[in-house]
Write a structure and sequence with these properties.
heterodimer; A: alpha/beta; 15 helices; globular; B: alpha/beta; eight-stranded parallel β-barrel; 12 helices; binds pyridoxal-5'-phosphate
């Protein structure tokens, strides 16, 4: 099927469903992003930060011992975990923080689930001299207390959100309320490819560097394109970042792994595309978890960063046109892959990322030893040591 | 006796040299029957038009007070059926105030038809943009329902004209940049926004967000055609020990506000 790219829409998905109060700011942001992406000076500044601050390009590690559990397919890990601050999130944050300065704003607000986006935002704010306020569900401040401390050490203000389910979805609501109130001075530095236009497009553009580098690296290493590219999907930013430069390579399968929690059939999950329906949440039309009245259903996942009842609109579209496929990985499957990578490769992944690794075990076994799989290793697991220790019964 | 139309209510108020008073209550708060009683109490105190709120799980335009009321309504399992039931119980013109997803989920065609047959006169949609309103415009026209969009002080003149052009019944002008909630003073941004709107539309203009006292209502009535009050009523209900006391207090406040909207316009 042909891909339609109306501005701000992905087929029937995307768009803007926001209070009129925010339209001016979204227009301003769209214009700033468009002009910056054509401005060599802006690109030079961003590239300089990628190289001298984040540590790009991130390397590719071949996981030979892990591959033995994945049907002996070749397993290539794109090491976004080695970026400064420990995940892919920094790519988008540096881009948006530079745009904030370009727009003459001095304050950023952000939502965070796992705390990775909050930490990345606090980091960029410190680097560029911006005030930073991070909204985080109270539930998540407990699950990810180490990251709360990191944000504070970096000089950010962390506001625990006590409304609704007290997780990422409610942190986004609070950030939107702050933005409606302070929009003239404040940029909302959204952490994933969801939200109203231009966020899904802009955040994707800032993460495309993952896929652009990886495509080149895989070609150099193996002389061909991979058979499949895999990534975990919360809001979908690390996945779209690595998928997007492969979209026109029709022979490359794009596979997104959603959080299946206790199993999609149990109702306790965060597998928005696999187990949800189309609707509108947080300013965009996409798949979401909702009841028959259109009320958002709380999501469940062992991974705070995937515990979100929505997903970026471009993923909804790639799913509907059949260009990408989405599977659910349960908490237990993810934790199995988590421990397997730790013990076969000496790399402790983020629990979010472990969902992609569990997908690699499945797909590797399906495709067998001739296959090449590229996996976005979106983040490192330091922040998850407490959760993982608890899961595996390791006393702390 | 058939209900007045929105236009008739605004015209009558104008002939009485006053602004219209519009009151907001979420359906299902504090209970389904309680919300009907509260609406009757509002009307007894002089409210001309009622906004029936459709509680939503992610109300990004609402402050703490309305969020709390919405949580109560959701715990009471208030859905479209209950919202429509409350609408059909209202003796003055009533509109539904709803975030977009519950309407889309119910079906745009189905919702507008059901609302029209329940006797509702329109819908206020705080998070629906005109760009996403294709079916909505068709179906609200087909069912003779008013479409009310909410504009803000940050809305520029050319966009104000475009949005007002898609409104019918009245235009909802947010008094300030922010979310719903009672505030002590009224921002200058309200009168400035209304003045800019006057240049682009002949529709009546109602001002909401933050109005809680008779004095503020009188201030707004000097330059606007309608005054919208929500959080101030909800706050009284949250503070009262029972529904009887809630209704009494709500009627008293409505009476004060209704005096307020009569003091503002000088001629
Ligand atoms: C390491 C890591 N991977 C993935 C995600 C999920 O986000 P997204 O789907 O936007 O990549 C998060 C979110 O916090 C994360 O920290």
């Amino acid at each position: 099927m042909e891909r339609i790219e109306l501005v701000g829409h992905f087929g029937p998905y995307g768009g803007r469903f926001v209070p009129e109060a925010l339209i001016g700011a979204l227009d301003e942001l769209e214009a700033a992003h468009n002009s910056a992406s054509k401005d060599p000076e802006f690109q030079r500044e961003l590239n300089h930060l990628h190289k001298s601050y984040t540590g790009r390009p991130s390397i590719i590690t071949e996981a030979n011992r892990f591959a033995e559990h994945a049907g002996n397919a070749r397993i290539l890990l794109k090491r976004e975990d080695l970026n400064h601050t420990g995940s892919h999130k920094i790519n988008n944050v540096l881009g948006q923080a530079l745009l904030t300065k370009r727009m003459g704003k001095k304050r950023i607000i952000a939502e965070t689930g796992a705390g990775q986006h909050g930490v990345a935002s606090a980091t960029a704010a410190a680097l560029l001299g911006l005030e930073c306020v991070v909204y985080m569900g109270e539930e998540d401040t407990k699950r990810q207390s180490l990251n709360v401390a990191r944000m504070k050490l970096l000089g950010a203000t962390v506001i625990p959100v006590t409304t609704g389910s007290r997780t990422l979805k409610d942190a986004i609501n609070e950030a939107m309320r702050d933005w409606v109130t302070n929009v003239s001075t404040t940029h909302y530095l959204l952490g994933t490819v969801a939200g109203p236009h231009p966020f899904p497009t802009m955040v994707r553009d800032f993460h495309r560097i993952i896929g652009i580098e990886a495509r080149q690296q895989v070609l150099e290493m193996t002389g061909r394109l991979p058979d499949a590219v895999l990534a975990c999907v919360g809001g979908g930013s690390n996945a779209i970042g690595i998928f997007h430069p492969f979209i026109d390579d029709s022979g490359v399968r794009l596979i997104g792994l959603e959080a299946g929690g206790a199993g999609v059939e149990s109702g306790k999950h965060a597998a928005t595309i696999v187990g949800g329906t189309p609707g509108v949440l947080h300013g965009t039309r996409s798949y979401l978890l909702q009841d028959s009245d259109g009320q958002t259903i709380e999501s469940h996942s062992i991974s705070a960063g995937l515990d979100y009842p929505g997903v970026g609109p471009e993923h909804a579209y790639l799913h509907d046109i059949g260009r990408a496929e989405y599977r659910a990985i349960t908490d237990d499957q993810a934790m199995h892959a988590f421990s397997l990578l730790s013990q076969s490769e000496g790399i402790i992944p983020a629990i979010e990322t472990a969902h992609a690794l569990a997908g690699a075990l499945q797909v590797g076994n399906e495709l067998g030893s001739g296959a090449i799989l590229l996996i976005n290793l979106s983040g490192r697991g330091d922040k998850d040591v407490q959760t993982a220790a608890q899961y595996f019964g390791i006393p702390l | 006796m058939s209900k007045e139309s929105l236009a008739q209510v605004f015209a009558r108020a104008k002939s009485e040299k006053r602004a219209v008073l519009i009151g907001y209550v979420p359906a299902g708060f504090p209970t389904l029957e309680g919300s009907k009683e509260l609406i009757r109490a509002l009307i007894a105190g002089g409210v001309d038009i009622v906004e029936v709120g459709f509680a939503y799980s992610d109300p990004v335009m609402d402050g703490a007070i309305i969020q709390e009321a919405a949580e109560v309504a959701l715990r009471n399992k208030t859905g479209a059926k209950e919202v429509l039931e409350v609408v059909s119980s209202v003796s003055v013109p009533s509109l539904v105030m709803s975030y977009w997803n519950p309407i889309e989920r119910y079906g745009v065609k189905e919702f507008t038809e059901a609302l029209a047959s329940a006797g509702g006169v329109g819908v206020i949609t705080p998070d629906l943009t005109i760009e996403e309103s294709g079916d909505w415009i068709d179906e609200t026209e087909r069912n003779d329902l008013h479409r009310v969009y909410v504009v803000a002080p940050s809305t520029d003149d050319s966009r104000l004209a475009k949005v007002a052009n898609k409104c019918s019944g009245f235009v909802y002008a947010a008094s300030l940049m922010g979310v719903t909630g009672a505030r002590n003073s009224l921002a200058d941004s309200a009168s400035e926004l209304v003045a800019r709107l006057r240049k682009v539309t002949d529709l009546p203009i109602a001002v909401g967000l933050g109005v809680s006292t008779a004095e503020q209502a009188a201030d707004v009535a000097k330059f606007a055609d309608g005054v919208i009050v929500g959080s101030a009523f909800i706050k009284l209900v949250l503070q009262a020990p029972n529904i009887t006391q809630s209704c009494k207090n709500v009627t008293l406040l409505a009476r004060e506000l209704s005096d307020g909207v009569r003091q503002g316009q000088v001629g």
